[in-house]
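Task 17 of the worksheet. Students: predict the tertiary structure of the chain below and write it out as C-alpha cells. Keep your answer in the requested format; marks are given for formatting as well as content.
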Amino acid sequence: MTTSRPSGLLLDLDGTVYQDDEPVPGAVTAIAELRDGGLPLRFVTNTTRVARGTIAGWLEGFGIPADADDIFTPPFVAMDWLRERELRRVAVLLPEDSQDAFSGFELAEPGGDAPEAVVIGDLGEGWTFEVLNRAFRWLLDGAAFLALHRNRYWRTGGELVLDAGAFVAALEYATGREATVVGKPSRPMFAAAARSMGLSLEEVAMVGDDLEADIGGSQALGCTAFMVRTGKFRAEELAESAVEPDRVIDSVAELPAVVLG
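Model answer:
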C-alpha cells in the first residue's frame, strides 16, 4: 500500500525498537537515518514497569540517543489526568521504579486513608489475590478507576505473558465499572507525543507490533500506521482482525526506505 511521507513518527519500543534487552537488528541504524533525514520522532510505549529516565538509559546503551522527554509513557499522561481533576491521594499499582513519577501525590497505603483514585499498571509477578482484592474494595468505595493501558499480553524471554489489561478486565468485571484508559490505544498519549513535535495526529505515522493498541488505536485518531513483523506480531491475528495496517514491514529497519523515499 502506498502512503505519503509523514511529518513525524511515533515509535513503539518493546517489540519494535528492542526485544529482550537487545535492539531489533537494524533499529539503531534506521533511527539514525530517520533523524539524519530530518524526520522528527518520539517513542510511545505502554511500558509501565520502569521510569522514562530508565528507558532513555536503555536506548542510550543500545546506541540510540534519547532524552526522557522523547519518551511518552502512561504514567506521564496519568499525572496530568489526575491533576486536572484535583485528585491528590492515589493508590498506584506499579513497580517501585515507576511510582517515582507520582512523587507529587499522596500515595495511599494498605490500612491507611482510602484513595481518591486507583491507578492500575503492570505489576508483573507482584499481582496477588491480596493486591487485586484491595484494589477491588477501593474501587467499590468510589475511587476513580484509571488504567495506564489494557494490553492483553506482551512478549518477553521468547514467550507471550499476561499484561496489565488482564487485571484491568478482572477489576472491571468484579466492580461493574469501566476503567478510564490513558495509554495506547487511547488519545491522550498519542496526542501528547504528536503535540510535542508541533504536529497533529493526522501528520504522524505510528509504528508498532500491537495490532490493537498501536495500529487500530492510532488509525482511529487519524494517524497512518505501520505494523512490524517483530515482537508480538502474529500473522494469524492480522488475518482474523478487521484492523488493516497502512503497511506491514518486516522490522523497523525498513522504515527509512518506506518513509524517506
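Marker's comment: The chain has a mean pLDDT of 92. Residues 184 and 213 are 5 Å apart (CA to CA).
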